[in-house]
Amino acid sequence: MRPFVSAPFRPTSVPLTRVRRSTVRPTLLLAAVLALVGGLLLAHPGRAGAVADPLISQGRPATSSSVEDATFGPEKAVDGVATTRWASAEGSDPQWITVDLGPSAAVSRVRLVWEVAYARTYRVEISADNVAWTTLASESAGNGGTDDWTGLTGQGRYLRVYGTSRGTPYGYSLYELEVYGTSGGTPPPTGAFTVVAAGDIADRCTASSSSCAHPKTAALAQRLAPAFHLTMGDNQYDDAMLSDFRAYYDKTWGAFKARTRPVPGNHETYDPAGPLAGYKAYFGAIAYPQGKPYYSYDHGNWHFVALDSNSFDDPAQIQWLKDDLARTTKGCVAAYFHHPLYSSGGHGNDPVSRPVWRILHDAKADLVLNGHDHHYERFAPQDPDGRATADGIVEIVGGMGGASPYPIETVQPHSQKRISGPYGVLKLDLTDTTYTWQFVGVDNQVKDSAPTYRCH
User: Which domain of life is it from (predicted)?
Assistant: First the structure.
């Protein structure tokens, strides 16, 4: 663990459009000069680039190229707390952090407060689509501390700090990324919360075996401290008997069973006592809150639909789903079940899910989470017939919760990222209008960061 200290002061020239703060105490003369300059800037706000413009980045969704570990996520740089920070993985260039400012943001000022791990060279960039970037400011001789870029004139939705070379052997780390300007009347997102999710979890092993993965994913899932946890089926291997749930799953993921919202997988149907017998006996009303192995619930502006994909041919479940979606008044909809419609893994695409996808798509659902194939994969928005479309559903395969990994076999259209091998969980960051996520490994490293999507 590297020391947690502030960056030392390094004297340097100061461009007119940027002010650096040091820890050196100013003399009385310098204080007077600063007061005079401050008065001039207030009298002529154009020189400071709209000093009076409000802070528009606080609480907005943020993503990054990497994190040092899961406790230093990009959201920590825009949470308004001076003691929390984003930190990238160490020893690698380039690295970036991006904040979604909402549509039609006009940026006049960017303030960066660096930790000891600062950028020697970096760019401040803006983009309308998170793809094509325009440089607002660039630094070629950074020395840490605070960089305050004023007098900027940028228009776009995404603001990025793109580090190209580090000032230390560590990574990049920001206590604060503050963006000032106007947001086109779009209020900051509210109702932000985090959900942790995984499927294909508890092999018949315990922490006494170093190769046993589900104790490690459970520790990670608990350490991330979400509002609640989701599971996407195959919670317990091999036959999901009650005795195995008690001997294995309960010793790890069972620690937060009361905060878990599960669905069954195909292995839950193999129980010699009857399909889903051990699953129902173990979870009880948690898995059957409405008397069936499918149910729904709300959190914030999100409506969650938990489905049993073992029985998608059951007319009662299909009718319930249609009625449930027709009743919801929430602005964002997520569904989760075991069998993915699209997958590049060994099981591949499962058409059993297509009729349900069609219902979800017609109801403007946003997100689908699945397991079954033991890897991580994310897809671009698409419709039930596999056509890429902006109003499509985003699908994530998250079967890396503890069962032996499956290789990637046939890459499917619109698959944007595939990772097989590392165990971990999905860390979903949701607001009243947006969602994004990271695949976090049991080594606390972020293996993938997704774009930020707006709910339909």
Answer: Bacteria
